[in-house]
Amino acid sequence: MTIPFYQLDAFTDRRFGGNPAAVMLLDHFLDDATLLAIAAENNLSETAFLVRDDSDYQLRWFTPKVEVPLCGHATLASAAVVMQRLETHRMSVTFHSASGPLTVTKAEGAYILNFPARPSVETTPPAGLAEALGVTPLAVYVNDFNYMAILAHGDIVRALRPDMAGIKALDRPGVIVTAAGEDTHDIVSRYFAPAKGIDEDPVTGAAHCMLAPYWCERLSKDTLRAYQASPRGGEMTCHLIGDRVELTGQCVFYLEGTAEY
């Protein structure tokens, strides 16, 4: 079987920055074991699988280890494939996913993703979190998806070298670390998810669905300029609208071809 294959760098305007994602077009979804094997072979933080559904698309995301319920950068990459390669007349596309319908709209030089917000509540820091991070957070928040550790300064976020075994042992699949930003960005963050097979995700749209509600309230803003300070680095604008978050980012193509299995 031959599968059209694209690899793009998302949440960046330059190649070799942002978060690389694979986008693969299927006539129908293959069995889960095969999809996971393909994602493991691609060895990127996420592979997006697209299946046409009338004028929309069905969308699923896999890391090299697991299927995930929401992925920002691979949705951004999928939208770029649809609107720059498959249907160049389109200005928007709706993807049907495990997190409901996700609409992406083409903007001037960028794409706007409409995602569900993921509010959180403050919690007692779980045992082992501070030790795994190597720093004691000012506060810790939690939802069904992640822990979020609030740190005192962006320099602390950038300097972290977490113990991934300790992060993996927690009862949530990922940990966001974040602080208020400086200069051109309102917030800075990083995201660690070794339980998903990704020690550090380069730029994480889904994490910003949790970051945006917290920081918008904290900073009394409804729009944030965000920077994810991974080694590759990436940025986006987050706009909170009720129980939804609009994530605006850019995307560049790196590789196009076919895969066989």
Highlighted features:
22% helix; alpha+beta; Diaminopimelate Epimerase, Chain A, domain 1; 261 residues; 6 helices; 2 domains; 18 strands
Q: Could you list the spans in which at least 5 consecutive residues all have pLDDT below 50? A: none
CATH hierarchy: architecture of the largest domain: Roll
* Total beta strands: 18
| CATH topology name of the largest domain | Diaminopimelate Epimerase, Chain A, domain 1
What does the average pLDDT come to?
Answer: 97
The proportion of residues forming helix, as a percent range, comes to 10-25%
Overall radius of gyration: 18 Å
CATH level 1 class label of the largest domain: Alpha Beta
% residues in beta strands = 35-45%
Structural class: alpha+beta
Topology:
Elements: E1 2-10, E2 19-26, H1 32-42, E3 46-53, E4 56-62, E5 67-68, H2 72-86, E6 92-97, E7 100-107, E8 110-116, E9 121-123, H3 129-133, E10 139-142, E11 146-150, H4 154-159, H5 164-168, E12 174-180, E13 187-193, E14 198-201, H6 205-219, E15 223-228, E16 234-241, E17 244-249, E18 251-260
Parallel strand pairs: 2-3, 4-6, 11-12, 13-15
Antiparallel strand pairs: 1-2, 1-18, 3-4, 4-5, 6-7, 7-8, 8-17, 9-10, 10-11, 12-13, 13-14, 15-16, 16-17
